[in-house]
From TrEMBL:
It comes from Aeromicrobium ginsengisoli. Keywords: DNA damage, DNA repair. This is DNA-3-methyladenine glycosylase 2 family protein. The keyword Cytoplasm does not apply. GO terms for molecular function: alkylated DNA binding; DNA-3-methyladenine glycosylase activity; DNA-7-methylguanine glycosylase activity. InterPro entries: Alkylbase_DNA_Glycosylase/TA (IPR051912), DNA_glycosylase (IPR011257). It comes from the Bacteria. The keyword DNA repair applies. One of its GO terms (cellular component) is cytoplasm.
């Protein structure tokens, strides 16, 4: 008898325009060792925790306008129902006018880049909290340790080492010493657990206010420890918000200013510089990150690395 978790559902999605699925979904990967993501040749494997339960899914880009998805587990049907949003098919860049030479070139090079919409607010929120005010390498390592320690084995024929994002109650129950062992300081641990305690509510936000991103952001910012940067990081991934700007990021203002104006700027000027590109402000940020011609400031102080396991 075949277990229910081994039975797969399949959906093929014909896109209206070419989309680079791997590049689009790279936003969801938290470092090269992320236990929720693995690329095997031309197949992208991922896990998630849907409202209906855990899911493993494999995406293959058959053609620039054709994606084949296979999913296993209790959340399989729900995942496949949301496939257009996940791969960025609901993101419309048609009104974007690059204007600046750096953006014109990057937009041409990465014409298939879209902003994904997972609908999984808590997944994006916990990961963003872990990344607050620390070097990316350290945040990715902490995320990996926590997922390997507390994530459950995924359903279906997933590659070895993949794990499913823990349920909200599991995050809320992680003891303080386990956060410490993972390299997460007490402040971020408290914030993550505050998010987990309202996990069901934050995931409902994306459904209840699907067309009102600001309502979702207000709800997120009402959680102690969640500010503008964290809410934007959630919006980019869970809501597919191509206009979300992670103000307060250590690099974004400097990189955007240096690429577009030839000098670093602060968040106040960043808001002014990006204003003409509404509702595509994050698209500008993303294209600058990808551009080989975006000059970035390389001198000056960098954010220090701190291993919180030894403090």
């Amino acid at each position: 008898m075949v277990a229910a978790s081994e039975v797969s559902l399949v959906r093929e999605l014909r896109l209206d325009s070419p989309i680079n699925v791997w590049l689009t979904l790279s936003l969801l990967r938290r470092g090269p060792g992320d236990p929720t993501t693995r690329r095997d040749g031309n197949i992208l494997w991922r896990t998630s925790r849907m409202a209906s339960g855990p899911v493993t899914y494999a995406l293959r880009q058959v053609e620039p306008t054709l994606v084949r998805a296979e999913a296993w587990g209790p959340g399989a049907a729900e995942l496949l129902d949301g496939l257009p949003g996940l791969v960025g098919a609901e993101d419309d860049p048609s009104g974007f006018r690059p204007q600046h030479p750096v953006l014109i070139d990057a937009f041409r090079r990465h014409a298939g880049l879209r902003t994904p919409r997972t609908g999984r607010v808590l997944e994006a929120l916990i990961a963003a909290v872990i990344e607050q005010k620390v070097v990316g390498l350290d945040a990715f390592a902490a995320w990996r340790r926590l997922l390997l320690r507390f994530g459950e084995p995924p359903p279906g024929p997933a590659p070895a080492g993949l794990r499913v994002f823990p349920a909200a109650e599991q995050w809320a129950a992680i003891p303080s010493w386990e956060w410490h062992r993972a390299g997460v300081d007490p402040q971020r641990a408290r914030t993550a657990q505050a998010c987990a305690r309202v996990g069901l509510q934050v995931d409902r936000l994306a459904t209840t206010h699907a067309a009102d991103h600001e309502a979702v952001y207000r709800g997120l910012r009402s959680i102690p420890g969640v500010g503008v940067w964290t809410a934007a990081e959630v919006g980019i991934r869970a809501l597919g918000d191509s206009d979300a700007v992670p103000f307060g990021d250590y690099h974004v203002a400097k990189d955007v200013g240096t690429a577009l104006l030839g000098r670093p700027i602060d968040d106040v000027e960043l808001a002014e510089v990006l204003e003409p590109w509404r509702p595509h402000r994050f698209r500008v940020v993303q294209l600058i990150r990808l551009s080989p011609f975006a000059t970035r400031e390389r001198r000056g102080p960098r954010m220090p690395r701190v291993d919180h396991r030894h403090i």
